[in-house]
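Example record

The entry below shows one chain as it appears in the dataset: sequence first, then structure tokens.
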Amino acid sequence: MTSRKEEIITFKVDRTLAERMRVIENRSDFIRRAVLNALENTCPLCMGTGQLSETQRRLWGDFLEDHALEEVPDTHELHLVCRARHTPKRRKKTP
């Protein structure tokens, strides 16, 4: 049998958030699920900071040369589309 090792992480909240959270029956479980959800949905480039480094901006620009951000008509959400898939492949010229 393996023992589960747990680590305790604490953080401070303002009075308003503390009051709103008092009604949650299992705050630890709620916070765990909220953090996991946030981590699963974090931007892989900026890691949730909302900012790209100069190198990341340059590489993102390079990436967009063959990709595009397009809006889904029904939901208005953005998604990446690979233009290379939709471009006919060039045939090599034979001598």
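Notes for this example: Residues 27-40 form the longest helix (14 residues). Residues 8-41 form one domain.
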